[in-house]
Design goal:
Length: about 140
């Protein structure tokens, strides 16, 4: 194979390879958060509509008050919400070192499975005066 053919084959494989960009968000979304100065406690928070989670809005449901700080990576955690639904996250043990927007694990509730992604650590909302930053989101 000559250089020209090799270059064209390489270019074709690059152009057809799956792109590693942020997933398309649609509808509901779950966040795994740390809240308070020095990450005092952790929460799972749910928004029915992901567009309502972009500007500091309060979540539709919260699980985890009183749970203390959780390490999301390498351990499956289950949160129970007020309506009785549960969400179980399973984040890769090495995901803390992944780049933002990388797929980092999975989650499941009573209705369906979710893919989870590393987030940017942005401020998601304020919970009783404590800033809650998002470590992972699942949709």
């Amino acid at each position: 194979m000559g250089f020209k053919h090799f270059t064209m084959a390489l270019l074709a494989s690059i152009l057809t390879a799956p792109c590693s960009t942020a997933p398309t968000l649609d509808g509901e979304i779950m966040y795994l958060c740390h809240c308070g100065q020095d990450s005092k406690y952790s929460l799972m928070v749910y928004y029915k509509d992901y567009t309502k989670s972009q500007s500091g809005q309060q979540p539709d449901a919260i699980s985890g008050h009183g749970s203390g700080w959780l390490q999301w990576e390498g351990i499956a955690w289950t949160g129970t919400f007020a309506d009785g639904n549960t969400f179980t996250s399973s984040i890769n043990k090495d995901a803390g070192g992944f780049p933002a927007l990388s797929e980092a694990g999975s989650g499941v509730n009573k209705y369906r499975g979710f893919r989870c992604y590393k987030d940017t650590g942005r401020l998601l909302f304020v919970d009783s005066g404590a800033n809650c930053v998002t470590n992972y989101y699942c949709n």
